[in-house]
UniProtKB/TrEMBL annotation:
Part of the 50S ribosomal subunit; part of the 5S rRNA/L5/L18/L25 subcomplex. Contacts the 5S rRNA. Binds to the 5S rRNA independently of L5 and L18. NCBIfam families: bL25_bact_ctc. Residues 197-216 have a biased composition (Basic and acidic residues). Residues 3-92 form the Large ribosomal subunit protein bL25 L25 domain. Residues 100-183 form the Large ribosomal subunit protein bL25 beta domain. The gene is rplY. The keyword Ribosomal protein applies. This is one of the proteins that binds to the 5S RNA in the ribosome where it forms part of the central protuberance. It comes from Candidatus Harrisonbacteria bacterium RIFCSPHIGHO2_12_FULL_48_16. GO terms for biological process: translation. GO terms for cellular component: cytosolic large ribosomal subunit. Residues 217-256 have a biased composition (Low complexity). This is Large ribosomal subunit protein bL25. It comes from the Bacteria.
């Protein structure tokens, strides 16, 4: 899969004009790679993102006055507007085909659990993603979790039950639980639990929720920054330790 991009020479306020032209600013960087400032057609980027996700390797076709060159990369980060959720920028991480990377792969739950459908069970998704280590070409877009095997209360799907391709190493043990079915509380149990909850506990919980919302709002309004550990989010490759990084924890593009 290819993503056509162009080198760009304008930064800062000039990026606003890019977006008005249906383009988004982007950065390409990696281990031992000089940062490239790029512009990408938003429509094309959405198409590739939908098909490849943030874990599948793509070929970035860079156009410049000197010609074209292809670079293998992973969509490292998608920057969105905190209000409209519109894509306004992207970071691409160039990989080496002969070097393994750690990355978190999203889990895709399929099928229907009979324990949930007919036995009043509740499906608990213990994991939403799974960290793996593999060569870029072997990284799957997602891992399928078949919950149709959960026929009774207490049944679970384990990591060992997942179909993981050759050359892909999982960071957790084979007996780690991915999903399980628990019994739904009876009306008597719910009433008892409600009676045990004190008004002041509800107030504390409400204040904690408010604090969380305020923190999330502040984070959304702050300038986009990179996480300290790239492997800490789904679809984000862990940059090799030797790669030059700024204090934020990953190679930082110049200000868009």
């Amino acid at each position: 899969m290819e993503l056509a991009v162009q080198k760009r020479e304008k930064f800062g306020k000039a990026t606003k004009k890019l977006r008005e032209q249906g383009l988004i600013p982007a950065e390409l960087y990696g281990k031992g790679v000089q940062n490239l400032h790029l512009s990408i057609p938003l429509k094309e980027f959405r198409k590739v993102l939908k098909q490849a996700g943030e874990s599948t390797m793509i070929n970035v076709v860079v156009s410049s006055p000197a010609g074209e060159e292809k670079r293998p990369a992973i969509i490292y980060d998608v920057i969105t507007d905190p209000v409209s959720d519109e894509i306004i920028g992207a970071d691409l991480y160039q990989v080496r085909l002969d070097e393994k990377v750690k990355i978190k792969i999203p889990l895709e739950f399929t099928g229907e659990s009979q324990a949930v459908k007919n036995k009043n069970g509740i499906l608990v998704k213990v994991m939403q993603e799974l960290e793996v280590e593999a060569l870029p070409a072997d990284i799957p877009r997602s891992l399928v979790v078949d919950i149709s095997k959960l026929e009774d209360i207490g049944n679970s799907v384990y990591v060992k039950d997942l179909k993981i391709g050759n050359g892909v190493k999982v960071s957790v043990g084979p007996e780690s639980v991915v999903a399980t079915v628990t019994a739904k509380m009876t009306e008597e149990q719910e009433a008892k639990l409600a009676a045990e909850v004190k008004p002041e506990e509800i107030k504390v919980e409400t204040e904690e929720k408010k604090t969380e919302r305020d923190a999330a709002k502040a984070a959304a309004e702050a300038p986009a920054s990179s996480p300290a550990s790239p492997a800490g989010r789904a679809g984000k490759p862990a940059a090799p330790a030797e790669a030059a990084k700024p204090a934020a924890g990953k190679p930082a593009p110049e200000k868009k």
